[in-house]
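Pipeline run #58 for the internal structure catalog. This entry was flagged by the ingest filter as a single-chain record with no existing model, so it goes straight to prediction. Upstream metadata was stripped on purpose; only the residue string is passed forward. Reviewer on rotation: M.T. Logging verbosity set to normal.
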Amino acid sequence: MKPSIISSFAAGLLLAAAVSSVAYFVTKEDAPKAAETTATNTTATEESTEGVETTPTVEEMQDILSSSGYVVQTKEAAEKAESDWQKKVDAAEEKASEGKESNGDVVYRTAIYVSNGMTSIDVGNALKDADIIKMSGFEFSKEVEKKGVEKYLKPGSYKIDSSMSTNKIISTIFQKQ
């Protein structure tokens, strides 16, 4: 590049900065005047907008929400309901722990939902996340491929538990029909 081009560019930048600075400082003093004008116009507008709805009160909002099908409750009522629910859950867990078998084996049960577009890897990952299988989704997919049933994966809901063997899980989800 030639030095004359660079110096022309620099002079243009300097000129643009100078013009912007002048415009900023000249209009800076006009801003409070514009705010005062807006405040005056707002007062005139408020007087001419009689009959326009305002923000509803708390009672009106509760009525609106209740009529729309929502349950409206206070924070205290919600906290009480939550604590009551937690007590019921704790009692159920305590009752379940009393009835546990002595061998200590835990059986996990889950419903696997297979949707369109899922692959055997996706199914394996879902089973792994639900603690049904110990292998990874990829390893599960390899087991499915060994059986040659990967193309028989159909959308639906399948009930699976961890006491089932891998072969039983595969035959349950990948059904040749």
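catalog note: Helices lie at 3-28, 30-48, 58-67, 75-98, 120-129, 137-147, 166-173.
catalog note: The CA atoms of residues 4 and 10 lie 10 Å apart.
status: ready for reviewer M.T.
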